[in-house]
Design goal:
The protein is of the alpha+beta class. It contains 25 helices and 28 strands.
């Protein structure tokens, strides 16, 4: 999968970027428009038309898909104008509801866009509709309409409606008449055409298209960050999938479930009741799980939140058995359950003092309930949403991709890894189900045509195992009677591949409640004999030997800096040679300067260190070469102030990255010094000031002592 790219200050992003000109379509955007003509839209257009209309994105994209699904700028602009006019003429603002009602009365008939909810009036044996923004209720609805659109009864649906007005002398008669109703969602699509078009994209291109469809700029996300975004879609494509995501505020946890699909329902965790969610035993009416593909609980975290124990018990049974009871009758449903909430502590704090489910209400902080969860998304790995993270590229109109995902819910891709890999034999049935459902969902999202290379299958299998392992490892902290499990898989050669969670690698001392296996200084007692025969003892601290060998670091890992990664190996060196062909852009020169800063701060002020950089020229033209030389000159000038003599030579034939010292160390750098993900440059962001607070890209380091 593609790597993270990082913008330099010379190319402003976000609010500082120029906005007067329309973005120029990329090669990928042109390909998207060619293969999915009419089913994609430029994602920044939603903001352009939304104004102060409080409607989900899928409603706006439905309209944009009708009028602005093109890469021709004139067509797009005309479509924007049309959609704006439709919203101005037909969308009902609550503060203008009386004006709209007057318009209906005067004209006799008027088309509106509003959220419609229907109920059964049992006394009169009729269905009646309520319009959320227009503020009218009791409007008669035909039984055929309810049969065609049953979600009107549960939660409501955004619709385009024709409303008529006819006053009657009978005060019991509602004057409003529903002339026509059309839910805002795609009526049909060609699944075979979708699968055929998928074959024309590489995996990286397809993932970027999906990320743009969600609304994010894929250039600012790494491979793992993209997978985390896409696993949020699994509940829409996989039946009875139970997902949890806990993390800091502002990371977009609930956005997908409120804006992305007309088949999902987002409700506040505090609003959940047995009748609303499952069944009202008083009248037998089925709740949300009977009508929606996804039911997501927002603001689910909160230790002090009051919960209904009966609801928790019914939910546990539903999450395990896909069924619930209505009196003596057992009913099945396919709704996936999603739980999202905020954390108030850092990951190491939670691992040290409790567990990663610490924020949940007490009734849900229960091993039996938690064991029903198929995957735990590490929300702390997701960046807080910034303006420049939103995409201006092309993505699927969301009701189109929503229908695609819905159409694949009945398919099962969970066995697609088995010709290449097999799971550990001691993984329980429940663990295996969780892994299988996450794997199946991601396969349907990324490879709906069923064609994936073994290494691509392996990547999402590892991710699926990690998501379930995060659940199980925390359960073991809560319930010591649960059996420990070795999570991993075997390849076709019988080689065992263990799987760990990222936080397990980052904080081993806290993850297993054990002391870290990192090298610590050793304290030795040194005894000496005085002239008078008495013994003197003193403690002498000696450093443990430096690690030799190979180390791998996962994408999104934190706690890594040049000081811990390279500092001990460079200490005491007088001559250091750095070979890295990619010291070209601002952030790469910044990384180099930060390494020099580490070397300067660790050496004696009276010593000098010679650093030679071997790199290659920027191949982007004269302007970029000149900019590269300016960066390197500034590095040289800055290094001189710290007693470091910096020199550069250019070699366009180099490829490998390494650091060699005159003290006998050679360090092989898998991706050179460019190991950190995008940093905002915000002076109040710790990641700007301290490397250990930054997320890294996936990379490896090999430490070799001379003569070994």
């Amino acid at each position: 999968m593609s790597e993270v790219s990082e913008a330099s200050p010379e190319e402003p992003v976000g609010p500082d970027a120029p906005t007067d000109a329309a973005p120029r379509p990329s090669e990928l955007d042109r390909k998207i428009n060619r293969l999915f003509s009419g089913a994609v839209v430029r994602k920044d257009l939603v903001k352009a038309v939304k104004g102060n209309a409080i409607v989900p994105s899928y409603v706006l994209e439905y309209l944009l898909g009708q009028y602005a699904a093109s890469d021709d700028e004139a067509t797009i602009q005309a479509g924007i104008d049309t959609v704006r006019k439709i919203l101005a003429d037909h969308y009902v603002h609550r503060n203008q509801s009386e004006l709209v009602k007057s318009t209906i009365r005067e004209r006799g008939r008027h088309r509106i866009i509003d959220k419609v909810t229907a109920t059964l009036n049992e006394k009169d044996d009729v269905y009646q509709a309520e319009f959320a923004n227009l503020g009218i209720k009791g409007v008669l609805v035909e039984s055929a309409t309810i049969k065609a659109h049953p979600k009107l009864l549960v939660g409501g649906v955004w619709c385009i409606c024709d409303i008529e007005y006819f006053h009657s002398a009978d005060p019991r008669v509602v004057p409003w008449i529903l002339g026509s109703i059309k839910p805002i969602q795609l009526s049909n699509f060609d699944i075979e055409g979708y699968l055929a078009a998928r074959r024309e994209f590489t995996t990286d291109e397809w993932i970027d298209l999906l990320v743009q469809s969600i609304g994010f700029n894929p250039e600012l996300l790494g491979s793992r960050a993209k997978l985390i975004q896409l696993v949020r879609l699994v509940p829409f494509v996989e039946r009875n999938y139970n997902l949890v995501e806990l993390g800091p505020k502002g990371t977009g946890k609930s956005h997908i479930f409120s804006e992305f699909s007309p088949h999902g329902m987002l409700i506040s965790g505090g609003e959940v009741t047995v009748p609303k969610l499952f069944v009202n035993n008083a009248n037998g009416r089925i709740g949300l799980v009977g009508y929606w593909d996804v039911v997501a609980f927002d603001e689910f975290a909160g230790k002090k939140k009051r919960t209904d124990r009966a609801l928790v018990d019914i939910m546990k049974n539903y999450m395990a058995n896909k069924s619930f009871s209505r009196g003596v009758e057992t009913l099945g449903a396919e709704a996936s359950m999603v739980f999202v909430g905020n954390t108030s502590h850092t990951v190491p704090y939670m691992l040290k003092h409790s567990d990663l489910f610490d924020e949940l209400p007490e009734s849900y902080h229960d091993s039996a309930y938690l064991d029903r969860l198929h995957c735990y998304i590490p929300g702390w790995e997701v960046d807080i949403i910034r303006g420049e993270m939103f995409s201006d590229g092309y993505g699927f109109v969301v009701d189109y991709i929503a229908e695609v995902l819905k159409s694949m819910r009945s398919q099962d891709y969970s066995d697609r890894y088995q010709q290449h890999f097999s799971l550990s034999s001691d993984i329980s049935t429940r663990d295996r189900d969780g892994i299988h459902k996450t794997f199946s969902g991601l396969m349907k999202i990324l490879y709906p045509h069923g064609e994936a290379a073994p290494e691509e299958i392996e990547e999402i299998l590892r991710f699926a195992i990690e998501g379930r392992k995060r659940v199980k490892d925390q359960i073991l902290r809560i319930d010591s009677t649960m059996a420990d499990v070795k999570f991993g898989y075997l390849d076709r050669n019988g080689s065992w591949h263990p799987v760990s969670t990222l936080e397990e690698d980052e904080y081993p001392a806290y993850y297993r409640c054990e002391s870290s296996d990192a090298a610590e200084p050793r304290a030795d007692v040194v005894r000496s004999t005085r002239h008078d025969g008495t013994t003197n003892e003193r403690v002498q601290v000696s450093e443990a030997p430096l690690f030799e060998g190979h180390r791998e670091f996962q994408e999104n890992q934190r706690g890594i800096s040049f000081g811990t990664l390279l500092g001990p190996y460079l200490r005491g060196a007088g001559q250091i040679t750095i070979v890295d062909p990619y010291i070209r852009q601002f952030h790469q020169a910044r990384n180099l300067m930060e390494l020099i800063e580490e070397i300067a701060s660790a050496k004696d002020a009276a010593d000098e260190v010679n650093i030679k950089l071997v790199t290659s020229e920027n191949d982007g033209g004269e302007d970029k070469v000149r900019k590269q030389l300016e960066f390197l000159l500034k590095v040289k000038q800055g290094a001189a102030a710290g007693g470091i003599n910096f020199d550069v030579s250019f070699d366009d034939t180099i490829h490998d990255r390494s650091i060699v010292t005159d003290t006998g160390w050679k360090i092989l750098l898998g991706r050179g010094l460019d190991i950190f993900q995008f940093v905002t440059g915000d002076a109040f962001d710790l990641a700007t000031r301290r490397q250990e607070y930054r997320q890294v890209k996936a990379f490896s380091v090999t430490y070799i002592r001379a003569g070994q």
